[in-house]
Amino acid sequence: MRSRRTFKLLHIALLLPIIYDPGSVDILTERKSGEPMARQPIIQQDGGGRRGDGGGDSPSDIPLNNSAGNSAEGSFDADDARYDDELRPQRLSEVVGQRKVIERLKIMLDATQKRGEPLGHLLLDGPPGLGKTTLATVVPKELDRELQITSGPSLSAPKDLLPYLTNASYGSVLFIDEIHRLPPTVEEFLYPAMEDFRVDITLGDGLNARTINMKLQPFTVIGATTRSGMLTAPLRDRFVNRQHLEFYESDDLIAIVNRNAKKLRTTISDNAAEEIARRSRGTPRKANNLLRWSRDFAEIKADGSISHQVVVESFRMLEIDDVGLETQDRKYLESLITIFGGGPAGLKSIAHSIDIPPDTLEDEVEPFLLRCGFIQRTPRGRMVTAATFQHLQLPPPRP
Ligand SMILES: Nc1ncnc2c1ncn2[C@@H]1O[C@H](COP(=O)(O)OP(=O)(O)O)[C@@H](O)[C@H]1O
Ligand SMILES: [Mg+2]
After folding, report:
1. Is a pLDDT exceeding 60 seen at residue 46?
2. Residue 47 and residue 44: Cα distance in Å, rounded?
């Protein structure tokens, strides 16, 4: 018994230098040599230090490590992340809207704290800019636990994930953004880590192959995805808590705009805040970006305060219409009408015809058009509706 344990420890001791040394044999990787290594995780040790300090005024206090720069496809644009962080709610009490999700989350957090156990794995899904990263960063702060952040596209092989797992302390949170883009090998490596808090490492191959189990501290994975449908069933099943984020109601967006105008130290009239909210496509990130744009416009073209007229003129310049449709949304609808006779048309055909990647259409364009009732998704493809003709002021097709 004892000798077996010694043998195991010996193996781990032998294995670790191999895993952590990028120059050595890549046992856990499928990556071709010469490609960059994923950076080591940065742990955000919050320790409740920011409790009650109002938060949000210090940009970039959440280290969005390990994503930008690691993959050309990584979703974090450095600038975006910086802007997001500046206005990102720091505590659950600052999070506006999503009442049902927040209510359920509070119960989970209270129960977790009462029992002193780690939170069950949590999956957040919904279109971009609705608060997935925000909630994932707020949860560990509420629990007073550490947070590590990574994303699906930046984990190209199990060895990229391993440091995050071994670094995870008891009850800490590992946030995996865009979890639907985890490569299958990494996903399989994650299964036992999520289920039994262990990792299985295979050494060698063929007859000499050996598997070593390494115990991990119980921790929580928070996954975020814009495409829950792309998640494999085994991965989805490992999340005991699943929450879907919806587009925001106008009142919530108005509250977000007013609060953030204060943070940005700018003045805004009530009807200007309403106008920004109306054209933000139900999305806080859009509301924040439009608020920033109106502030710039007000400073250069007006007296610095954001009035209704400033908003209307500044949005005209951005070519955002009264319901929030932008140029690419209109291009989508117009091509569906003019090229495909109103549909049904496949996503890829539409994407090719307007030269926008299908992923962008599916993630950023279609959810809002569907919500407004401007398109329908049928088994045969996408179709426009009567509301589209009305909105674009086009004559409806003859029956
Ligand atoms: N519920 C909310 N209350 C207030 N602001 C929010 C909320 N959700 C999102 N935001 C704002 O929108 C920005 C983008 O949100 P984020 O969490 O990064 O979206 P996602 O990860 O879903 O793409 C945040 O920086 C934050 O300022
Ligand atoms: Mg995000």
Report:
1. no
2. 9
